[in-house]
Amino acid sequence: MRGLRGRQGFKRVDALMGGLLCRLTPRPGRIGQKEESPRTIVISKLAAMGDTILLLPHLRLLREAFPNARMIALASSVNRGVFDLWGGMDRIVEWSPAATLKAVWEIRREKADTAVDFEQWTHVTTLVLAWAGVPRRIGFATAGFGRGALYTDPVSHDGRVHEGEMFGRLLAPLGIQPAAGPPRVSIPLERRAAIGARISAAGLRPGDPIVVIHPGCGAHGWQREWPAARYAGVIGVLADTRSCSVVITGSAGERSLAEEVAALCRTRSWVAAGELSLLDLAALVAEAGVVICGNTGIVHLSEAVGTPAVAIHGPTDPVRWGPRDPRSRTIKGSLPCSPCLTLGFEYACAGRQCMEAVGTREVAAAADELIGLARTASRTLSAGMPC
């Protein structure tokens, strides 16, 4: 089952009908800050993987603030793997359009007393939580979407700040100071070792810096994707100056794109698209020197495991979705019409001129710099270790 990112039709229906259904649904009273602690908290986020990774530091704060509360995620097939990776949820209720009323029933049966809705624009989570009768509902009052009236604690959404910071603002009604900085995820050493073995089995040289190329941006992300030939060009430029192990990642649906990049390369690579679980992908990225990609979830995954990224933006706003690790690099197309994308389907044009405006050598130079910094840091750390 696809989540919201792969359901363009559903998002259009949500945009057209969701506001009307919100107006027809009875409004709650305003609660404000309460002294008693929540007993059962619903965390709702349906898409996407990257946004859900940005939630992790805030979820940890919620767990620390209310250690005895039961925490339930309302998620989709797109992002439930991130909740599984975190491991802090007591239960995951998986939503799909066909299972909307089932999700209402499941949450009502849990007798949840508090919900924090991290969706910024869609109405379906707003409605599910209201129809489930959750007494206290915290969520974004996003201008023009008509969803804020159904929250007991509406929080104004500001499109001028990073979404990771915006998510943290939803904790304020519960008296929690938001987390600062990007998320962090620890990867078991045995997983990292297993990925090293797979890299060797793919015929890549052990010890070479790993460059992860992630060319896809989801089922309907073509306009956010940098052309395959440009990625191959970056690999070629890097190969002229250093020896690298190139791994091309993506989902099973993006394997043909990954193979296209590999076919255009002059150097050997491992096409791992469709072969890795989320935990394995995280382990691979943790071992890498740099990740090169468009605006997609692996940007935030790379930051979570401590690997810098070169993130290429065109229709999306790096102020809101770009990497926050100071080592990472954001490269943006210079067209005056970008950014144009908020909901995931309202592109201003049919092409991807803003992505094509980004040059190969600019990206290669940023990647080469980050690989060099990573190797310098590694040598410094090794030199400082006792024999």
Q: What's the structural domain tally?
A: 2
Q: What's the average pLDDT?
A: 89
- Topology pattern, helix = H, strand = E: HEHEHEHEHEEHHEHEHEHEHEHEHH
Helix content: 25-40%
Please, what is the CATH homologous superfamily of the largest domain?
Glycogen Phosphorylase B
Rg value? 21 Å
- What is the β-strand count? 12
Distance between the termini: 52 Å
CATH topology of the largest domain: Rossmann fold
Give the helix tally: 14
What overall geometry do the principal axes of the alpha carbons give? globular
Largest sheet: 6 strands, parallel
> Structural class of the helices, strands and pairings?
alpha/beta
Strand fraction equals: 5-15%
Low-confidence stretches: 378-387
- Lateral strand order in the biggest sheet: 3-2-1-4-5-6
Can you describe what's shown?
The protein is of the alpha/beta class and 387 residues long. It folds into two domains: 4-174, Glycogen Phosphorylase B (Rossmann fold); 189-383, 3-Layer(aba) Sandwich (Rossmann fold). It is built from 14 helices and twelve strands. The chain has helices at 8-24, 49-65, 80-86, 100-110, 124-131, 163-169, 189-201, 228-241, 255-264, 278-287, 298-304, 318-321, 353-356, 360-383; strands at 40-44, 70-75, 91-94, 114-117, 136-141, 153-156, 210-214, 245-248, 269-271, 290-294, 309-313, 329-332. It has a six-stranded parallel β-sheet with strand order 3-2-1-4-5-6, covered by helices on one side. A six-stranded parallel β-sheet has the order 9-8-7-10-11-12, with helices on both faces. Helix 2 (49-65) runs parallel beside helix 3. The longest helix is centred in the last third of the chain and has 24 residues, at 360-383. It is globular. 48% of the residues are buried. Mean pLDDT is 89; it is low at 378-387.
